[in-house]
Amino acid sequence: LLSVTSSPNAPVGKYNLHVKTGANIYKPENAVIYLLFNPWCEEDVVYMANEAQKKEYVLNDTGYIYVGSAYNIYDRPWNFGQFEEFVLDACMYLLDKSKLSLTDRRDPANVSRAMSALVNSNDDDGVLLGNWSGNYVSGTSPMDWIGSVTILQKYYKTKKPVRYGQCWVFAGVLNTVMRCLGVPSRCVSTFDAAHDTEDNLTVDIYLNEKGEKLNSLSFDSVWNFHVWNDVWMKRKDLPNGFDGWQAIDSTPQEQSQ
Hints:
CATH class: Alpha Beta
Number of domains: 1
Helix content: 10-25%
Shape: elongated
Number of helices: 5
Strand order of the largest sheet: 9-10-11
């Protein structure tokens, strides 16, 4: 009987496992194993001590995403489906597509940044194409999705962005991807969501002398609601006190570095 224990900071991804005994080489079925982050392992940077939280934020494959407006909040049921067929393969495909180095694949902060970029299709042909126009003739309306599974399966099969997503769809898919990779994850909603484009922490409105709005002077806006994700990890790259829930956002707004 042979037991193989991987290092808690090994790079996440697909491995070939060959066991050589004398002249014989044993290859397990498919010869491939998937190595993930492990929130049950105390030495892993995504370790989560609370069993109920692991059940909720890693194992739970269904949930609700809260949408609407500040005075009319309602829940959308969502099938995260992180254990469904081809979802793990789709996540591994995204990891390869991210071109993260093996060193970066050890770090859930780098992996979650890469996944938040790849869940939208802007500049990297990622999973979902955003559309806020109201015209969804050439794809599926964001309102019609009820889960991540069909989206990820379709993307993995075609390798082309799936049409269409808005913030809760991006957040639902990213939640699936992070839980599938072993990182505790949750969707977070905010209402009357201020979107500041000028880095001055205010929402600016410019008017002319007639009181008419001058939209060309500021792209700041307030959305009815917005949904992003929190992921759980230790931050060894930051000073003490920054461990725990970290915000990531896969809805394409402005590029970050």
